[in-house]
Amino acid sequence: MTAITVTADRIKAAQDGDRKALGEVLEGVQDQVHKLSRRILVDPEDAREATQEILILVLTKLSTFRGESAFATWVYRVAVRYLLHSKKIRDRDPGLTFEAFAADLETGLVADPPDAPDHALLLNELRISCTMAMLLCLTMELRLAYVLGEIFELEHGEAAEILELAPAAYRKRLSRARSEVVAFTGRHCGLASLSARCLCPRRLPAAIKAGRIVPGHTPNSEGADESYSEVRSRIGTVIDSLKAFRLQQAVPEERCPQDIRAQLTGILSQLA
Q: What is the tens place of the pLDDT at every residue in 230-258?
């Protein structure tokens, strides 16, 4: 998935009311806005709703962009402010902790799991779902720092600007988030640690029984470039300090849902 690359002339034309340029600006940012929403909120429907509302904010606030920062930085800041301050998002926060997540992972583990239909696909779905849900154990502030720094791999200066933090404060926040994710992964994820009890094949029967993984419905692993076994093999070859990073990077990227694109086209068509 490409980064946000909208040219200055199209931004200026959009600010001047050119509907075609407005459409191009939104098209240029929508995938990255959805990627951010998905990794921060995890739930597909929550991410879908947040993406739509952030893109409408980008549209309505576009006239305030003065070029004092990169356009991508400005877009991410609009998105971050929404994610941090939306009452709707705060009310839906599951309040998950690493302790509760670890206890859930170790509930119902089986020593000799039977192969389920579509076993390989379901293992990949579980691997991706668990990797994404893990970040919900971070506070929203730490989650944003981690996603921008570790998953989007933004320069620290840009991430600090997006989060409206001093660079030193951002580095401290990212370090704390990274330490918490690395510690949890090293203790509890069988993909990253040979001593961890939870491994996707042992966890899959309980996840299916609880309805967290549904045979025949694998939305998270659609478009995945690597299988469960390939990711497990690759994670096993890197040093311990990089395992959590590689695991998070192995989550496939999704494009902005087509229905949001259609809704934005409808909104643009109504503009005078």
A: 999 999 999 998 999 999 999 999 899 98
pLDDT of residue 241: 87
- Residue 46 CB partners (closer than 8 Å, separation 6+): 37, 89, 92
Question: Which residue shows structure tokens 């949001």?
Answer: 260
Residue-wise pLDDT tens digits, 87-108 = 999 999 889 999 999 999 999 9
| Beta-bridge partners for 198 | 189
Using a 10 angstrom Cβ sphere, with 0-12 exposed, 13-18 middle and 19 or more buried, the burial of residue 197 is: middle
Report the alpha-carbon distance of residue 147 to residue 81 in Å, rounded.
Answer: 15
**Assigned token pair, 204:** 């899959």
pLDDT digits (tens, 9 = 90+) for 252-265: 998 999 888 888 88
